[in-house]
Design goal:
Blueprint lengths: L5 E5 L3 H11 L5 E5 L2 H11 L3 E5 L7 H9 L8 E6 L4 H9 L4 E4 L4 H11 L1
Helix pairs in contact: 2-3
Protein name: Response regulator
Pfam family, one: Response_reg
InterPro entries: CheY-like_superfamily (IPR011006), Sig_transdc_resp-reg_receiver (IPR001789)
């Protein structure tokens, strides 16, 4: 039997985290949630998800800091990281690429777009 892929949703806004979880409920995946950067880092290291949906602006550590820490560690470098941000400026996109993010989505995102991207990744 194939093991379910793990997806970590790191988002400090409860409503957006819930919306993302509900959007991904149709995926045959094990979902984990974090509400700040430190928690996201801890869960990612413990659970080793295939995919991390990572908000940029979070308390504790920013999404950029979490991404950089995970991508610079050989144990977690293989986690696919999608940065989610309400700020779609080129500078945010460039910074996401600089810290090793694999993909970048601007919030609010379309649930269809999110499901399509997750489907491509997993």
């Amino acid at each position: 039997m194939k093991k379910k892929p793990k997806i970590l949703i790191a988002e400090d806004e409860d409503a957006l985290r819930l919306l993302t979880r509900e959007t991904l409920a149709s995926q045959d995946a094990e979902l984990f949630e974090a509400s700040d950067g430190l928690e996201a880092l801890e869960i990612a290291r413990r659970e080793m998800p295939e995919l991390l949906l990572l908000d940029v602006a979070m308390p504790g550590l920013t999404g950029f800091e979490v991404c950089e820490k995970l991508k610079s560690d050989p144990d977690t470098a293989g986690i696919v990281i999608v940065m989610l941000t309400a700020h779609g400026q080129g500078s945010d996109r460039a910074r996401a690429v600089a810290v090793g993010a694999d993909h970048f989505m601007t919030k609010p995102f379309s649930p269809v777009q999110l499901i399509r991207l997750v489907g491509q990744i997993l």
